[in-house]
């Protein structure tokens, strides 16, 4: 089965080759699952050799037959040992590698098998290339948005007083998979791949912050997995936050919605309205030339004018310093809406914007929707309504 069409792969490889020539590199040797999927359309184990000029080679350790079915590129060859790598590099002496995600011990293995070859880190180049989505990629994210909407409808329909966070999470996870989601999330950040696909946090458990640099943590079920839903029952008149990245064909759509059985305190309703104002601001102002720092500062200003700055994006020492992040094949892509992020946005960036407000002893409210940056502003790719989900019984 071919997933990614040949013209899409050729476009991506061509952009990478232009970047390699600009850097004075002879080629790039890529190994991460994300890079293999992006440049070949297949996630089988192996390496991709992309010369600065010429045809790439997908060097597969396991499983060659699947790689040939899944990848539209012609140069797919077996590679059973790293000792054979020099035969495929054509005498290259200065190459790019993903040093930002390569353990030192493994890098030393490459050095032994590639004597006389110098390696430069092309990780930032790859992240920049992937940050601009093609129309084909955007359609994959739209499909994930539709699956996310189906998931939210199932969550809202199942919500009832007395059920546990875990029980509601299981409903959401099942609905998500049946809607076409793949049930796994790729991260770029080191040691962040353990996060669940479904976050259900009721009341004060939304302030149970955890290891990941994300607004929500959750109690989880055990210190071995200190993240996500717990066995705490859901009560009336308290916020229930559901944060669920949904991945279809490898592409992430990220979304958060807040629900309640009964009625929320006025301060929380006003905070939820403020989160909607921040999303509306991003829809207007996230266009080419704007920066992540500017959008962060505008978000903080909206929270400040609403008297909610101390509740914005966490509480106490557990506040995070961003309000949005890129999504694509990974959950934590570029660009980032945060201080010191001064690289201008580009048309084709896809960003998940997640304004959230935390109230100690009470809970949290917030939203997250996914946007496509266009010359006229940001287009909402999320289709689930952003209103507070209120259930009477």
TrEMBL record:
Lineage: Bacteria, Bacillati, Bacillota, Clostridia, Eubacteriales
InterPro entries: Creatin/AminoP/Spt16_N (IPR029149), Creatinase/aminopeptidase-like (IPR036005), Creatinase_N (IPR000587), Pept_M24 (IPR000994), Peptidase_M24B (IPR050659)
Domain of life, per lineage: Bacteria
Protein name, as recorded: Xaa-Pro dipeptidase
Organism name: Symbiobacterium thermophilum (strain DSM 24528 / JCM 14929 / IAM 14863 / T)
Domain Creatinase N-terminal: 12-132
Domain Peptidase M24 span(s) in chain numbering: 139-374
